[in-house]
């Protein structure tokens, strides 16, 4: 049984005028213990929404309108708020996008970790909490004594590590990292990814990496879920996505990625823009920008087909050779 | 404009504007509305002095037998003239000082801010008393005194806003394309500063009216004009012992009415123009733009 | 890593742009001189001291943002300046355009010292002929017409209260280059459409908030292009955009160079994008260039350990291609406390004892290829 199984998740956002925007539809994937999943897509494609929906942290306008989120067999969407609070952070923790900039500037790093520990009832005393905070900092590569410093005394990479330490405070089974390396230099990016991989190995953590950067997904993830316009375009193992992509969007995305071993080859770009949620195409959401579109693509959204074991594609031409 | 529609939807703003419009109409139409000319010489009998309200004099008569209602209506003019003019003067001076101090900084900025500090530390009213006592009473002097001392808060406000805007990347871009300092200040900095200044100026009008009323109450108002403060001055000296509430209450009420209306408008404007965090703290608002827009 | 012989040929350097230099701004083009020459550029920022430090007469702490950078750019050339935050690459760009004044060294644009022109410190010995008669303001304007900047953050570089038309027309208004509304519209339209915002009429009424990140960046580029500059300093133009959109912008810059012969100085922290369209690359670390040479050579056979590490951590979009990554520990030190000897030695996986004492200069190791390392 998978640690986490999401089936047909659908999320709407309510606008001022009352009409719902179908931000996410029909998202399904699963996650095993100790494995990592990369959730890839452009800004606004719904990947953060999916993660927020998992943890039931959507903003006021968000509504989960369908699907199941099975964590160890229990549907998280059916839990009460009190029960959900036992899941959040204890079982599933998240490093939010831009969290490294959202640290409380007037409190030391250590005190912020201690706060998380005491709030979740994980420390018998403040002394024990401080001890544990020190351990967590060491775990992410920060010397424990630096816990007494303030966020402004940390560099960007260190702040990101501190936020990861906070997320690990309750020994979660799953860690979700939303754009953990955006705004960091390449070397620091590599360090953070190395850290996440190490944690995944040593703590048998399941990892979800949400990003728009295919490159880090290639290096760090076992499975990849490519999202476009709120739906799943392709879902397969990392190897399959990069070597035998079937969805036209995935193919174009790979061509837009500069490969340092073949510099000088033209970078492809995808003309057009992502669909507006209030003006969704009636058929496949990628159809207006697709270089291989057919009549049928505009008629109705394509269902997800499993073209090979564990390789799902939402495209009418999934089985045709590219 | 989006700001105007937001203003219209805010009940405080609408009520405040309505209240202010009443006063403005009264001031403009005073000759029409007032039943009597408050300056006219009257033949009075002792019974007319401090006479209580009746059918011909809706608010009674004052200590010289003149109609209180008419005085009240004409008094609106002085208050509004002083309020708007002095506030406008403060706005101009304060914005200029704030822009220069904020944009150029350095020694000039420091010097200007020390002047501001100096003026802010001295209590306003005693200073005004001294200046009026020396310069003499008169409407122009009062406007000058209030306007020339009231710009300091605006200057501070403008300067802090300019310091923020100055560091924005589009200002750097303007420099990179060759814009002169004046161009940058006028096109890029001033538009960001103006809304805050206007919101503050409206509140300043209220302060100016109160200060004028205080000065007139203390006997330093223009002797040739009737203002609400002067009415209060006379009422305080002469009407209280006679328990002539109709002379005391109306000017006080009018001052409160105008101040309140301006404060309501000013606060509403402030709510609209002051930059606030509008995004959910877990979302980067600018990334959400892509969901809503495509071009 | 493939050898350089199997890489596709890069575009040859085109000749001078048609129509003569800089739209007749009257700046005589010096012959045989590189368009841009940076000589031993230093830029320091003194940190403000607290009262106790002043009283105790402690020496001022100084941020050595740029600590001795030299390179040259020929007309039509394109150089990538690669470095992480704190390497000084943005500061170099600002000094190249005269938006900051160097602490030491100089920047020469077409033979004229930029600092003297832009900051106005009296006539230099090189000023002669018609240019000597111009006022300081006029000289700055001429420089701005010929050298422009593309900014990193498309969300911040555009004034949210200006329409796209105002933004792109602003340089024309400032420099008074057009005589009528029609002429302005024509030039704005040309600039917008060159940058792919077609039809221009659809875009120029809009405000920046209504555009996506990629579209905003195109507006920024159009705003720089409208003056028809000879040099573009592109300061990390794509790092704030999604990977799928970067291709568009990079292709646009590539085309601008190819078709119009615009010289480009491209700063970035992402080696992969630099590899795509630049001919030469300079890798910066802590204010100095540590390796400079043809892009192809640097990518296929990097010599400096820092360059090697940077290249090794570039993500490869294929899980089957396993490669060893040299992940350097720690972070770039604070430019206030530059390590003695070779400034990279504390993090260098190949450092030897001498590296702690000797500060290696840039030395040629192959034609056009220089490295600052004792081991090369």
Helix-strand layout with pairing:
The complex is a heterotrimer of chains A (322), B (295) and C (376).
Chain A: E1 4-14, E2 20-31, E3 36-40, H1 47-54, E4 62-71, E5 74-75, H2 81-87, E6 92-95, H3 109-119, H4 126-139, H5 156-167, E7 174-178, H6 186-203, E8 206-211, H7 214-220, E9 223-228, E10 231-237, H8 238-243, H9 248-255, H10 295-299, E11 305-308, E12 311-313
Parallel strand pairs in A: 3-8, 3-9, 6-7, 7-8
Antiparallel strand pairs in A: 1-2, 1-4, 4-5, 9-10, 10-12, 11-12
Chain B: H1 2-9, H2 11-28, H3 30-33, H4 68-104, H5 106-121, H6 124-135, H7 139-149, H8 152-166, H9 169-176, H10 181-217, H11 228-239, H12 245-273, H13 285-292
Helix pairs in contact in B: 2-4, 2-12, 4-5, 4-7, 4-8, 4-10, 4-12, 5-8, 6-7, 7-10, 8-10, 9-10, 10-11, 10-12, 11-12
Chain C: E1 36-46, H1 51-55, E2 62-73, E3 78-82, H2 89-96, E4 104-109, E5 112-113, H3 114-119, H4 136-146, E6 147-150, H5 164-175, H6 181-194, H7 200-203, H8 213-225, E7 231-235, H9 243-260, E8 263-268, H10 271-277, E9 280-285, E10 288-294, H11 295-300, H12 305-312, E11 363-366, E12 369-371
Parallel strand pairs in C: 3-8, 3-9, 6-7, 7-8
Antiparallel strand pairs in C: 1-2, 1-4, 4-5, 9-10, 10-12, 11-12
Q: How does this model look, in words?
A:
The complex is a heterotrimer of chains A (322), B (295) and C (376). Chain A has 322 residues and is α/β, with parallel strands linked by helices. Chain A has helices spanning 47-54, 81-87, 109-119, 126-139, 156-167, 186-203, 214-220, 238-243, 248-255, 295-299, and strands at 4-14, 20-31, 36-40, 62-71, 74-75, 92-95, 174-178, 206-211, 223-228, 231-237, 305-308, 311-313. In chain A, the strands form 2 sheets. Chain A has an 8-stranded mixed beta sheet with strand order 6-7-8-3-9-10-12-11, sandwiched between helices. In chain A, helix 3 packs across helix 4 (126-139). By secondary structure, chain B is mainly alpha-helical. In chain B, 73% of the residues lie in helices and 0% in strands. In chain B, helix 2 (11-28) crosses helix 12, helix 4 (68-104) runs antiparallel to helix 5 (106-121) and helix 8 runs antiparallel to helix 10. Chain B is elongated and about 80 Å long. Chain C has 376 residues and is an alpha/beta fold. Chain C is built from 12 helices and 12 strands. In chain C, the strands form 2 sheets. Chain C has an 8-stranded mixed beta sheet with strand order 6-7-8-3-9-10-12-11, with helices on both faces. A 4-stranded antiparallel beta sheet of chain C has the order 2-1-4-5. In chain C, helix 5 crosses helix 6 (181-194), helix 5 packs parallel to helix 8 (213-225) and helix 6 (181-194) packs across helix 8 (213-225). The chains are: A alpha/beta (322), B mainly alpha (295), C alpha/beta (376). Chains in contact: A-B, A-C, B-C. At the A-C interface, helix 5, helix 6, helix 7, helix 8 and helix 9 of A face helix 9, helix 10, helix 11 and helix 12 of C.
């Amino acid at each position: 049984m998978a640690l986490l199984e999401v089936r047909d998740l659908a999320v709407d956002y309510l606008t001022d005028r009352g009409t719902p925007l179908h931000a996410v539809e029909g998202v399904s994937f699963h996650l095993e213990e100790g494995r990592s999943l990369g959730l890839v897509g452009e800004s606004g494609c719904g990947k953060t929404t999916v993660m927020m929906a998992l943890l039931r942290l959507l903003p006021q306008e968000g509504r989960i309108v369908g699907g199941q989120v099975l964590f160890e067999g229990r549907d998280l969407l059916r839990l009460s708020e009190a029960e959900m609070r036992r899941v959040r952070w204890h079982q599933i923790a998240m490093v939010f996008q831009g969290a490294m900039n959202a640290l409380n500037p007037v409190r030391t790093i250590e005190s912020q970790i201690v706060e998380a520990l005491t709030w979740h009832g994980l420390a018998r005393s403040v002394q024990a909490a401080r001890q544990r905070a020190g351990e967590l900092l060491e775990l992410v590569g920060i010397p424990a004594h630096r816990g007494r410093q303030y966020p402004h005394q940390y560099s960007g990479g260190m702040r990101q590590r501190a936020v990861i330490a906070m997320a690990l405070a309750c020994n979660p089974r799953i860690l979700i990292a939303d754009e953990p390396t955006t705004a960091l230099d390449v070397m620091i990016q590599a360090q953070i990814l190395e850290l996440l991989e190490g944690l995944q190995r040593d703590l048998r953590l399941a990892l979800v990496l949400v990003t728009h950067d295919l490159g880090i997904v290639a290096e760090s993830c076992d499975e990849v879920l490519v999202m476009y316009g709120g739906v799943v375009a392709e879902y397969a193992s990392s190897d399959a996505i990069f070597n035998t992509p079937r969805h036209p969007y995935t193919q174009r995305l790979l061509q837009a990625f500069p490969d340092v071993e073949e510099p000088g080859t033209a970078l492809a770009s995808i003309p057009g823009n992502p669909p507006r949620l209030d003006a969704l195409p009636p058929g496949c959401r990628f159809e207006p920008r697709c270089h291989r579109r057919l009549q049928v693509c505009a008629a109705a959204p394509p269902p997800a087909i499993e073209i090979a074991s564990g390789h799902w594609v939402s495209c009418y031409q999934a089985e045709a050779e590219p | 404009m989006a700001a105007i529609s937001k203003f219209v939807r805010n009940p405080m703003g609408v009520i405040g504007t309505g209240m202010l419009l009443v006063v403005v109409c009264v001031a403009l139409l005073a000759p029409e509305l007032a039943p009597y000319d408050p300056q006219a010489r009257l033949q009075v009998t002792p019974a007319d002095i401090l006479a209580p309200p009746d059918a011909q004099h809706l608010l009674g008569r004052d200590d010289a037998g003149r109609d209180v209602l008419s005085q009240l209506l004409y008094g609106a003019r002085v208050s509004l003239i002083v309020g708007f003019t002095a506030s406008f003067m403060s706005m101009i001076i304060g914005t200029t000082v704030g822009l220069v101090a904020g944009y150029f900084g350095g020694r000039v900025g420091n010097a200007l801010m020390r002047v501001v500090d100096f003026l802010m530390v001295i209590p306003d009213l005693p200073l005004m008393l001294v200046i009026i006592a020396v310069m003499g009473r008169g409407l122009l002097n009062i406007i000058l005194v209030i306007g020339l001392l009231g710009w300091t808060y605006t200057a501070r406000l403008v300067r802090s806003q300019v310091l923020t805007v100055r560091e924005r990347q589009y200002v750097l871009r303007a420099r990179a394309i060759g814009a002169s300092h004046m161009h940058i200040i006028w096109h890029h900095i001033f538009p960001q500063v103006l809304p805050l200044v206007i919101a503050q100026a409206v509140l300043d009008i209220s302060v100016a009216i109160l200060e004028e009323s205080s000065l007139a109450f203390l006997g330093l108002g223009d002797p040739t004009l009737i203002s609400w403060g002067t009415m209060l001055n006379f009422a305080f000296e002469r009407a209280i012992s006679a328990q002539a509430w109709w002379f005391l209450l109306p000017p006080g009420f009018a001052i409160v009415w105008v101040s309140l209306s301006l404060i309501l408008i000013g606060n509403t404007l402030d709510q609209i123009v002051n930059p606030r965090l509008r995004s959910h703290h877990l979302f980067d608002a600018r990334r959400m733009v892509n969901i809503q827009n495509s071009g | 890593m493939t050898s350089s012989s199997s890489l596709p040929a890069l575009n040859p350097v085109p000749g001078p742009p048609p129509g003569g230099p800089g739209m007749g701004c009257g700046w005589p083009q010096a012959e045989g001189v590189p368009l841009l020459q940076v000589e031993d550029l230093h830029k320091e920022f003194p940190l403000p001291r607290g009262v106790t430090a002043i009283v105790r007469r402690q020496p001022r702490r100084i941020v050595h943002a740029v600590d001795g950078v030299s390179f040259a750019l020929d007309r039509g050339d394109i150089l990538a300046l690669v470095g992480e935050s704190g390497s000084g690459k943005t500061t170099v760009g600002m000094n190249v355009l005269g938006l900051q004044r160097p602490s030491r060294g100089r920047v020469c644009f077409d033979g004229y010292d930029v600092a003297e022109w832009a900051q106005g410190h009296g006539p230099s010995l090189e000023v002669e002929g018609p240019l000597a008669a111009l006022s300081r303001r006029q000289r700055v304007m001429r420089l701005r017409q010929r050298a422009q900047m593309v900014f990193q953050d498309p969300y911040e570089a555009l004034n949210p209260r200006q329409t796209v038309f105002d933004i792109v027309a602003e340089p024309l208004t400032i420099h008074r280059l057009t005589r009528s509304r029609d002429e302005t519209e024509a030039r704005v339209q040309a600039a917008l459409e060159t940058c792919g915002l077609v039809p221009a009429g659809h875009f120029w009424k809009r405000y920046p908030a209504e555009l996506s990140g990629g579209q905003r960046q195109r507006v920024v580029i159009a705003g720089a292009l409208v003056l028809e500059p000879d040099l573009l300093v592109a300061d990390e133009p794509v790092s704030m955009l999604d990977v799928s959109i970067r291709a568009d912008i990079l292709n646009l810059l590539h085309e601008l160079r190819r078709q119009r012969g615009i010289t480009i100085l491209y700063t970035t922290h992402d080696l992969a994008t630099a590899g795509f369209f630049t001919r030469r690359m300079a890798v910066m670390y802590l204010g100095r260039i540590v390796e400079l040479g043809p892009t192809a050579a640097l990518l296929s056979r990097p010599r400096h350990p820092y360059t090697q590490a940077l290249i090794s951590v570039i993500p490869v979009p294929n899980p089957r291609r396993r490669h060893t990554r040299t992940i350097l520990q720690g972070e770039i030190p604070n430019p206030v406390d530059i390590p003695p000897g070779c400034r990279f030695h504390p993090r260098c996986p190949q450092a030897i004892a001498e590296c702690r004492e000797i500060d290696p200069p840039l030395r040629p190791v192959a034609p056009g290829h220089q490295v600052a390392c004792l081991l090369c």
